[in-house]
Design goal:
- The chain folds into two domains: 2-81, Methyltransferase, Methionine Synthase (B12-binding Domains), Chain A, domain 1; 89-209, 3-Layer(aba) Sandwich (Rossmann fold), CATH 3.40.50.280.
- Helix content is 58%, strand content 11%.
- It is built from nine helices and five strands.
- It has a five-stranded parallel sheet, sandwiched between helices.
- α8 (183-188) links the parallel β4 and β5.
- α1 runs antiparallel to α2 and α1 packs antiparallel against α4 (58-81).
- The longest helix has 24 residues, at 58-81.
- Bound molecules: cobalamin.
- Cobalamin is lined by residues 41, 44-45, 48, 51-52, 58, 61-62, 65, 98-105, 107-108, 144-146, 148-151, 175-180, 195, 197-198, 201.
Amino acid sequence: MECVEKLVQAVMEGDDEVAAEVAQEVVEKGEDLQPVVAKLTEAMRELGKQFETFEIFLPEMMCSSDAMTAAMDVFGPKLGASGAAKKKGVVVIGGAPGDMHEIGKNIVTTVLQSDGYEVADLGRDVAALEFVKKAQELKADIIAVSALMTTTMPGAKEVIRILSEQGLREKYKVIVGGAPTNGKWAKEIGADGWAENSTDAVTLCNNLMGVE
Ligand code: B12
C-alpha cells in the first residue's frame, strides 16, 4: 500500500521520474491497478481544484500531468494484459477539435482497453471529420469525444452532424465526456451516452454494446 501512496505523492509533486519508478514498483508488487488508477484520477481532480483556486499554477500542473502520463505509460500494457481476452468492440477516441487536454481521455482509453475494447486513440485536438474517417477505416462501434473546455464542446456536436450528413449516424454510437460536460448536454446534441469518469465509461460502452 505504501508504494501506492508514494505514487500519488509523486504525481501531486509533479515528479515524472519518481512516478515512473514507483509505478513499476506497484506493478511488480502485483497491486490491483484499477483502484490505483482511480486514486491517481482523484489526485488529478484535486490538483485541478487547486489550479482553479490559484493554489498552484500552470508549470506545476504541467509537471503533474507529465507525472500522471509517466505512471499511465507503465500501467497501460499491464492493464491491457489483465483485461478480457475477447474483444468487446472497437472504440475511436480523441480530444475535441481545439482541445489540448488529454489526461482524462488517456485514462478512459487505458481503462477501456483493460476491459477488452480495442481503442484507437487519435490524440488531442482532433478534427471532427478525422473521428468519422477513422471510425469508417476501423469499422468502429463507438466514437468517443473528450471535451475539457466549454469552447471545445461544440466539436462533439460537429462529429454527430458530419455523421448525419454522410448518412452514417446509425452506424456508430457516439459518446461524450470531460469535466464541463453532462448527461443533459449529451442528450441535447444527440449523443448516445455520457459518462462522468472512466469506470462509468466502461459501463456505458458495455451497455451500448450489449455486453457485460
Ligand atoms: C490539467 C489541465 C491542463 C493541462 C493539460 C495537460 C494535458 N496534457 O492534458 C494544461 C496545463 C496544458 C492545460 C492547458 C489549458 N487549460 Co486546462 N485544465 C487542466 C485541469 C486543471 C485539469 C484537467 C484534468 O486533467 N483533469 C483530471 C482528469 C483525470 O479528469 P478529466 O479530464 O475530467 O477526465 C475524466 C472525466 O471527465 C471522464 N472523461 C474525460 N474524457 C472523456 C471522454 C469520454 C468519451 C467519456 C465517456 C468520459 C471522459 O473520464 C476521465 C477520467 O475519470 C482543468 C480543470 C478541471 N477541473 O478540469 C483545466 C481546464 C480544463 N483548463 C482550462 C483552460 C482555460 C486551459 C487553457 C486555455 C490555459 C489556461 N488558461 O489555463 C489551456 C488550454 C489549451 C487548449 N487549447 O486546450 C479551463 C477550461 C475552461 C473552459 N472554457 O471550460 C479549466 C476548466 C480550468 C479553469 N477553470 O480555468 N490545462
